[in-house]
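Batch manifest line 345
LIGAND: nicotinamide-adenine-dinucleotide
JOB: complex structure
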Amino acid sequence: MKKKKILVTGGTGYIGSHTIVELIEAGYDVVCADNCINSDESSLQGIHELTGVKIPFYRVDLCDREHSECIFTDHPDLSGIIHFAALKAVGESVEKPVLYFRNNLNSLLNMLEMCLKYNISSFIFSSSCTVYGDTETCPVDEQTPLKEAASPYGRTKQMGEEMICDCLANSKTQSILLRYFNPAGAHASGLLGESPMNAPQNLVPAITEAAIGKRQELTVFGTDYPTRDGSCVRDYIHVSDLARAHVLALNYLLSGKQAEAVDIYNLGIGQGLSVLEIIQAFEQVTGVKLPYRMGDRRPGDVVAIYSDYSKASKNLKWKPNFGVEDIMRTAWTWEQNRSMKTKSY
Ligand SMILES: NC(=O)c1ccc[n+]([C@@H]2O[C@H](COP(=O)([O-])OP(=O)(O)OC[C@H]3O[C@@H](n4cnc5c(N)ncnc54)[C@H](O)[C@@H]3O)[C@@H](O)[C@H]2O)c1
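JOB STATUS: finished
ARTIFACT:
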């Protein structure tokens, strides 16, 4: 039987590259598109080493409609799109809201237009728990009302979800919106991981960079939040668990099991850990003492959020296989491998 072909946008990035490996292992053909604004092509090498497959790659800004359309004329047999491409730094979005709205919404709009024009049957969107805003409900499930987003980044995800619902209603494309909690960790092989172009704003890569000496110290943003130790609480999900969820969501859509045009799933592990608890977990797992200091709150951060993922568990048959120790161990291995490579050049 002919393999189904999937376009992965943002595929040289962190979650995209892990998902491509899972897709290839599950028997899909993959086409990758990315402008490498926050990644580089080295992840394609990691994908090749892990799967033996060299995937077609388009270096393209998906905001450029005309250039992006080449992917669809070259590959008229696409069955689905997994749309990861976006800028994702909450703090940067507060400083540069125009950049975030332009990049995240225009690229999405172009992909939705291509779905309609080329009759793509399935569309999976990287949403985020930031759509819940500074919620007082924990754990949050998919029915939890959305509050005002705490940052322009979060608002691009809220608006993105609405654009998908409006554009795909009464179309031949069905969609799943995956609301990720806090993806972290790296591939068990040590060949793929988070490798952003700019200084990472997410906690785990900031921890590993501080541990290896790439940054002098780590700052804990806010120590007076109403949580058990004063630091923010988040739900950390291993990137390999997250990547596998995309394959399950895609299988679900392609097998015709979804009745709705658009459906939503939370992806977290259902457990909230504070920043200080995460630092402690890293130190325990690796034996490395972290240089960190207490700092002020950072604009755009919510107090505490963790997921109820029972809907993904029931419909997609997904459950997390990894915990915080796996996250810390794999992230640390990845950071050490990455630093060795940089030094040897
Ligand atoms: N990592 C997280 O903490 C997190 C949490 C929730 C949701 N998400 C979402 O998941 C998706 C993937 O995130 P990630 O962590 O892998 O980030 P990432 O930055 O590693 O990957 C995103 C990729 O998209 C590319 N990109 C951005 N704008 C583009 C454009 N206009 N055209 C082409 N490519 C473009 C970047 O170069 C990058 O490779 C994003 O949509 C992000 O908002 C991430």
